[in-house]
Design brief:
By secondary structure, the protein is an all-alpha fold. It is built from 14 helices and two strands.
Length: 328
């Protein structure tokens, strides 16, 4: 039985979060914190507020989960042994131990929900089975709580989801990604203060957790703290300099602070990394417009709308000049 417990722990460890890929540093954009932040921000074709998206479609008729009662092995052995009631039947013991391992593996895979293909109620049921039967002990239980929280959240059961997020953090208080997950939950409430506290804790444990930097930057921006948002995005750029969307995010912050030159540089790098990133052309067009370079702004606006026709609703033509209007 101890061998089975160790096998379970190994399986759980293999299926944990993938590590964040870290890349070489690159110079940050020009300092923009001194720009006047009281002027109205330029238009944006997107909503940058973060949220939670549950992916994965529920399958049709799934087979029922194996039951994991405390006496599963004993019951199996009693009904399977053939060497007599008072004789140890090692063959039956081996078969029952193997069946128990297979059943546990099946339930673990349903709870872990790798690929997001299991229905939320199946995830909740599987994780509950594993928690109730204490298949894992100690800090290993954090992943069961975390996955069941996601199942509850997909079902719209926010109170139970929060209880499980809290239980996961309590089981593994030094795991930064658990604080990140709970922060994302708080953003959906919305509870910005609680989310910011968890993002801070996650980054205190792992300063290189880029998703937390990006989400905290968006939260700072929503709260009007553009200097803090720029600092987080600049660190994200340093850690992942080959990700176009991060350059574009920072370029937009420079744009909000009317540092048009820095915005143009960042959006240009985003375009170099991803020539089909429509929003980068859109933001660069707005920056060109801020500098009075109408022909360059027009060229970028046309490219942006060509790549993403939905951006056309933010553009009106007057005297052959691109005008960007704010979304409602």
């Amino acid at each position: 039985m101890e061998t089975l417990r160790r096998s379970n722990s190994v399986l759980l460890a293999v299926l944990l979060f993938a590590p964040v890929v870290l890349l070489a540093a690159i110079p940050a954009c020009a300092q923009a914190g001194a720009a006047d932040q009281t002027n109205p921000p330029p238009a944006t074709p997107e909503t940058l507020s973060p949220g939670i998206t549950v992916t994965g479609a529920a399958p049709g008729n799934e087979p029922p989960l194996p039951k994991l009662p405390p006496d599963q092995f004993t019951d199996c052995y009693e009904t399977s042994k053939t060497a007599g009631p008072d004789t140890i039947d090692y063959i039956a013991m081996t078969l029952c131990e193997s069946q128990l391992a297979q059943d546990r593996k099946a339930v673990i895979e349903k709870c872990i929900n790798k690929g997001g293909k299991n229905a939320p109620d199946v995830v909740v049921q599987a994780c509950t089975e594993l928690l109730d039967r204490r298949v894992f002990i100690g800090s290993d239980r954090f992943y069961l709580y975390a996955n069941r929280a996601e199942g509850y959240l997909a079902q719209g059961d926010r109170p139970h989801a929060l209880q499980d997020y809290d239980a996961a953090v309590k089981a593994a208080p030094h795991n930064p990604k658990l604080y990140f997950n709970r922060a994302m939950f708080y953003l959906g409430q919305p509870d910005a203060d609680a989310a910011l506290q968890d993002f801070d804790q996650a980054l205190s444990l792992d300063p290189k957790l880029v998703p937390a930097l990006l989400q905290r930057a968006k939260l700072h921006k929503a709260q009007g703290n553009l200097a803090a948002a720029l600092a987080d995005d600049s660190e994200a750029v340093r850690l992942e300099p080959k990700t176009a969307s991060i350059w574009s995010d920072r370029g937009y912050l420079c744009l909000l602070q009317q540092d048009y030159a820095s915005a143009i540089k960042d959006e240009a790098e985003a375009i170099r990394l991803d020539p089909k990133l429509a929003r980068a052309y859109f933001f660069r067009a707005t920056a060109f417009q801020g500098l009075g370079e109408a022909s360059k702004a027009r060229a970028d606006i046309l490219t942006a709308v060509h790549l993403d026709p939905s951006l056309g609703r933010f553009v009106t033509n007057k005297d052959n000049k691109p005008l960007v209007t704010a979304p409602p």
